[in-house]
Amino acid sequence: MTDETQVTDAEGDVVSAHDAGTRTAVAMPVARFDDPHMREAARNPRQAEQIIAVLMLIGIAGIAGFGAAYWQNAAPWIIAVTLGVGLFFLGFGMTAWGKYLMPQGPFVEERHPLASSDDERQAMAAALVERTGVVVKRRRLLGGLLGGGLGIFGIVAMFPLLRSMGPLPGDALDRTDWKKGTYLVDSNGRRVRSDEMEVGGIMTVYPAGLENTDAGQAIDQTVLIRVQDTAFTTVKGRETWAPLGYVAYSKVCTHLGCPVGLYERELELLVCPCHQSMFNVRDGAVPQFGPAPRPLPQLPLYIDANGYLRSQSGYDQAVGPGFWERTNQGNGTA
Ligand code: FES
């Protein structure tokens, strides 16, 4: 007669301790369903397993459908949907498996102390001396030097990071080369007169003398547009900025910095070719469409006694995108 203890496996089946032992390579304590580590759903593991199996079958069908759709060069949306369904349901099934059919932690395993005893250390030292003929000692000096070497290496390794960042920009990014009285010139350096553009005309202009410089081409570039043949006001407070209907705006898009060089004359819109931001030139280049977050800065103009167009001052705010996207309207003085 055998005296065999009966236990219950994780699925609720009654098995002998012998059977339980042969099913697993290492004898593990059998999980109890009232164990606080087990979730409620685990108390009905067969039902949970069936639901998870259905989820995974749907996932497998999705992946198979994705393969077939890809093979047949089906429409992109079919490929996307089948792949999405496959990944979603397979992932859902795996997650549910771990969540509802596995014990939940935390688990704690006691460990023996890691440090060797004095006897073990002495035995180890004696064995080394015996086998090598060399007495192993602590080398505090060398250890200290090694630590110092690693420390100084860590500090020096940061130098390229700090040094390669270059000097601080200061307020250089806030300002352009436009100043009070600067002549507007075209790309050939020719001064622009107030009587040479028709209504609806557009021209790229630069500060005199800087038309061929990097700064001139990058941050100073400005579009000059003749909206009408009489002075007008784009924004309250800018009553004198558009003499004889000329307005000037920064050509650097406030979205990502592309040159805003297209002009839709009928709609009086400046258009950025990169992402189609549109700026209304009559009302201060406020964006009408697209991702640009703020208006193009306006350059205040005047016409001197000889009929040349000149700037009253620099831009009243920084041009372009980036950190400049701080406000919708600038109010400083550049
Ligand atoms: S850079 Fe002008 S809209 Fe994007």
In words, what does this structure look like?
- This protein has helices at 17-23, 45-71, 76-100, 118-132, 140-157, 159-163, 214-220; strands at residues 6-8, 14-16, 184-185, 202-207, 222-226, 246-250, 262-264, 269-271, 278-280, 286-289, 298-299, 301-303, 309-311.
- With 334 residues, it is an alpha+beta fold.
- Among the domains are: 31-100; 174-321, Rieske Iron-sulfur Protein.
- Helix 2 packs antiparallel against helix 3.
- The protein is flat and about 100 Å long.
- Bound molecules: FE2/S2 (inorganic) cluster.
- FE2/S2 (inorganic) cluster binds at residues 253, 255-256, 258, 272, 274-275, 277, 290-292.
Bound molecules: FE2/S2 (inorganic) cluster
Judged by helices, strands and strand pairing, the structural class is: alpha+beta
Query: Would you identify the regions where 5 or more consecutive residues have pLDDT less than 50?
Result: 1-25, 328-334
Report the end-to-end length measured between terminal Cα atoms.
102 Å
CATH secondary-structure class of the domain at 174-321: Mainly Beta
The CATH architecture classification of the domain at 174-321 is 3-layer Sandwich
How large is the radius of gyration? 38 Å
Level of helix content? Answer: 25-40%
Q: Could you describe the largest sheet, including whether it forms a barrel?
A: 5 strands, antiparallel
| β-strand number | 13
Tally of individual helices: 7
- The CATH superfamily label of the domain at 174-321 reads Rieske [2Fe-2S] iron-sulphur domain
CATH topology of the domain at 174-321: Rieske Iron-sulfur Protein
Strand content: 5-15%
Oligomeric category: single chain
The topology string of helices and strands comes to EEHHHHHHEEHEEEEEEEEE
